[in-house]
Design brief:
Helix content: 25-40%
Mean pLDDT: 88
Bound molecules: aspartic acid
Low-confidence stretches: 1-37
Number of strands: 15
Distance between the termini: 34 Å
CATH class: Alpha Beta
CATH superfamily: (Glycosyl)asparaginase
Largest sheet: 9 strands, mixed
CATH topology: Glutamine Phosphoribosylpyrophosphate, subunit 1, domain 1
Length: 359
């Protein structure tokens, strides 16, 4: 039996405290019976934070974004319901968003100044603290699955001596490794979307005009960046995170953001929580946002919501805007952001999918 306990916003903490299963253990008794009452599972996803104004959004566009987030939640949630791994759920949810051209990851990734698509991704397993990270990929259809593969291949044995496999791979070498391991590679053309191409042209023109293009160059955050991510808690109490991105429009070829930086944009630890960030990557790396959320819980005993807000505020003080999603080992969730919107979704206590975009 299981229950999903997911909340958002200010009502989170109180509701979570109430809903947490309580098993009375008398003084001196050892709680050696498995808790058969309720096994919580939880899943939260995001599709990027930024200036997302209702006035800029067509109904059609909003509907498509919401549908994409719902599909991602469904894919991950089905796995968790069946007793599957949080790693599988987070990967499955992110793959759906990578395949959806409306989000900046996989198909639909933004363009570099050189007109290429270069993607970053990472996953982390809260149980083992194993992680896999990839950067500057140009041909891997689903970068998140290459990050997952690095987790799976992290331990191996050569002539009876144990070795540790690479955790972080980039560029051509990473793609060769993907090919050797049967990960699907595609032509760069696969990642092309007219909308992202137009966004690149807009940003370039605006730069040429010295940013003084006025109304002619209204550069929305939708044009500039985005990222997708998922955090999950499975029936065994394991936390996992997956984050994938095309980065930022007009970024220099070779630039790597926070998404594949373990502790920057991605982190998970069964002892605390799992976190996936989105926003101005350079600032999230400098503020070590994802690791700080976990550290504030581990070392300061903070509640998830407070820790998430404090870590995000640190990036903001440096000048970085964005948001994050997080889930802790109890199934509490937090979805703070300091922009006008963040594409986000979770599953409520009744198993209903909740998707939100604006503040
Ligand atoms: N954090 C991503 C990066 O800097 C972009 C984003 O999430 O908007 O690559």
């Amino acid at each position: 039996m299981f229950a999903i306990v997911l909340f958002s916003g200010g009502a989170l903490a109180a509701a979570q405290e109430q809903s947490r299963p309580v098993k009375a253990v008398g003084r001196g008794e050892i709680d050696d019976q498995p808790n058969m009452e309720i096994k919580k599972i939880g899943l939260v996803v995001h599709g990027g934070a930024g200036t997302i104004e209702r006035s800029e959004m067509t109904l059609e566009r909003e509907r498509e974004h919401r549908a994409g987030l719902e599909r991602a939640l469904t894919a991950g949630y089905e796995i968790l319901k069946r007793g599957g791994l949080s790693l599988d759920a987070a990967e499955a949810a992110v793959r759906v968003l990578e395949d959806d051209p409306h989000f900046n990851a996989g198909k639909g990734s933004v363009f570099t100044s050189a007109g290429t698509n270069e993607m970053d991704a990472a996953m982390m397993d809260g149980k083992t603290l194993k992680a896999g990270a990839v950067a500057n990929l140009r041909h891997v259809k689903n970068p998140i699955s290459l990050a997952r593969l690095l987790i799976e291949k992290s331990d191996y044995v050569v002539s009876k001596s144990p070795r540790v496999g690479p955790l972080f791979m980039a560029g051509e070498g990473a793609e060769m490794f993907a090919k050797e391991n049967g990960i699907e590679l595609v032509d760069q053309k696969y990642f092309f979307t007219q909308e992202r191409w137009n966004a690149l042209q807009k940003v370039k023109e605006s730069e040429k005009a010295g940013g003084a293009g006025g109304k002619k160059f209204i550069i929305t955050d939708q044009d500039r960046h985005g990222t997708v991510g998922a955090v999950a808690l499975d029936q065994q109490g394991n936390l996992a995170v997956a984050t994938s991105t095309g980065g930022t429009t007009n970024k220099k070829s070779g630039r790597v953001g926070d998404s594949p930086i373990i502790g920057g944009g991605t982190y998970a630890n069964n002892a605390t929580c799992a976190i996936s960030c989105t926003g101005d990557g350079e600032f999230f790396i400098r503020a070590a946002v994802a690791h700080n959320v976990s550290a504030l819980i581990e070392y300061r005993g903070m509640k998830l919501e407070e820790a998430a807000q404090m870590a995000l505020d640190k990036a903001k003080k440096l000048g970085g805007e964005g948001g994050l999603i997080a889930i802790d080992k109890h199934g509490n969730i937090a979805l703070p952001f300091n922009t006008s919107g963040m594409y986000r979704g979770y599953v409520d206590p009744d198993g209903k999918l909740v998707v939100e975009i604006y503040k």
